[in-house]
Amino acid sequence: MKETFTVTGMTCSACSAAVERSVSKVDGVIKCEVNLLANQMQVEYENTDAATIINAVVDAGYGASLKRAKEEKVTQQAEDNYYEELKGMEFRLKVSFAFMIPLMYIAMGHMYNWPMPAFFMGVENAITFAFTQFLLVLPVLYVNRKYFIVGLKTLFKGHPNMDSLIAIGSGSALVYGVFTIYAIGVALGQGDMATVHEHMMNLYFESSSMILTLITLGKYFEAKSKHKTRDAISKMMELTSDTAVIIKDGIETEVPVEEVMINDNFIVLPGAKVPVDGIVVEGYSSIDESALTGESIPVEKHIGDKVIGATLNTSGRLVCRATKVGDDITFAQIVKLVEEASASKAPISKLADKISGIFVPVVMSIALVTGIVWLALGYEFSFALSMAISVLVISCPCALGLATPVAIMVGTGKGAENGILIKSAESLEILHEIKTIVLDKTGTITEGKPRVQQTSFKNPSDIITLASLEKYSEHPLASAIVAYANEQKITFKPVDSFENVMGKGIKGSVDGIMYYVGNLRFMKELGITIDTFEKVANVIASKGQTPMYLANEHGILGYVSVADTIKATSKEAIQAMKDLNLEVVMLSGDHELNAKSIAEEVGTTSYIAEVLPADKERVIKELQAKGKVAMVGDGVNDAVALTRADVGIAIGAGSDVAIESADVVLVNSDLMDVVNAVRLSKAVIKNIKQNLFWAFFYNSLGIPVAAGVFFLSLGWKLNPMIGAAAMSFSSVFVVSNALRLRKFKRYQSSAVKIAETKEIIKKDEDKKMEKKMVINGMMCMHCVGRVDKALNAIEGVTATVDLESKTATITLTSDVSDEVLVKTVTDAGYEVESIN
Question: The whole model's pTM is what?
């Protein structure tokens, strides 16, 4: 069983590492992955339960709850929680700065000869000077008490985190300041003014205040930046519809989308979003699927076509039957897929995770050793304490912990925006290492919609026998032959003893005679020679057409040639793959000549012909000896090969089995998106490496400087306040760097660009034929529906009716007079005020 949990209280990678360790120790837990960025944990387990896992998280010092299916959406409540948290941080910052600024002025003003009240000046006012600073630091400590509560709690639980470092660092400065106030009082009582003056210079209240304020400032910017990493998911969820207009007993009723049931009929008006997945049962329109596919060109929808929830109806009125509702709609599944991928871990993060797990205890040990060493070297306690505090507050486990997940989240979200669905971070990482891309021919390089090109039979009636046999087959070529037979108005004959011979053909009995239909290999195995047809068949194959032979026990009877159209984007996409230094191999079950013709046409010299479905896995395995292999396919027979490949890529228009077996799903049936997936992977991995380099470099340099390694030789001493500022903004740097991935641009083929340009021109032309009609008498959505239905029933008219403005925007694709439009609305029971 695999469950997702929401984890609360985590602030850095040490927290996530502690939770992961604690849960992994539970008997029955197979795998545990904690995502600091999403505050989520994915656990695969057996022979245990969710309650035991939650208890393990609580024992580690954090909170946890099971994330239910209904919580999978990015809800308004989640947004409200984020803004509430941000508002709280803003309040903390205002209070912190309000008290920190006067504290800094009093503590450091005498050093720069700033104007200062007389009662703060001189050793005789030392207690007033020190105690005022103490009072000013208290509000800062109180509003930022979370660091102390969480930090000390996790410290005592044995899992110290970044909050522990902050609490110990700022707390040590505070305790030393209180001790110094007592020391000043004692020295004043003894009249030792030299000691009083010395202690006045080493109060450290300003350090405690500045550390907490700068850390909170950094956390504020980090929270805002991290929220942007979820923009893709948030924008996707904003596209879903809240309501739907369903038809019950002939009555149109607007209901919340959650109440739509499977097989309910629902209406989608022009300009409205499709509420759930369904099938068109009435009407014709164009649907903008750009939110799902990234393509701006609307897709025409006719009766029997599928519509997808959250897409936009751009023109006509549709009546659809619901096929998927609730969390089962395509859009909800995509969001779930993106969230799961964002929460998963890439292999590249393993080193950072291991270091994060021991980072805080090691830093605390270094700080302790630092203080002891400087005391042993004869330096004052205040100097040694300053060095130790600097070590604690400059070290940043957050930068290490955020280096990978922020880039993964932005990358997978950006992929989803462009119709590239990546199921796991591991797949995203492996993609950038791919050396060979294997492309299945049918449905991947070609359209997967073959058509009959020519027929040749000794007896013309044999086409009836061939078509009758093919009607029982599920092969793509069979559907082409059956479609051809329907066009020719052929009456099919009954078939007995039908059998599918995998990868070769079919056989069956018609009118009591056994017939065989298949490729050349099948004919040879049956001992049938094609003699008279062989020469012309070779010419056909060299043109990229596939000959299918019909024979019986007496010999060959004829053939039919079928060709599948190459996709407009395939040739350009294959060239783009080569430009990325990828070897492209085409797999085909076709005859050698046919496969060679297709390969040459799309620009690849590497192809393997006459490959049976069962052999595809073997081919992948052989190619893997040269390096990592990606397999691109769309059919049920590609599923095993997709699983065998290092990365399986399924074309979105393919079978459910192929999509389920794949690691990456392309919503568009466009090979250029294979190129985009590889480019995105390379961009994400490059970004992760930059983040990890910064995190390691920063900590490797910052901690030694803070410990005073260069103090004796170069005189470098780091003020704890500077250390706190550096620590805060190192995390902001990592998140900001990851956000650059949002600028990733998707390559488009020339064919797609031309189509989009034509669509823009068409829209411009359509706008020139737009009319605006003001209508009186519309009172509700039922009125809108009647007017909409009446206007859209006119040939050449596409209308969008708006209740609020009492208008209808009418687009004309043919010459329709104003009189006809006005009469139509009047006949529907409403009054037209104006039309222009």
Answer: 0.68
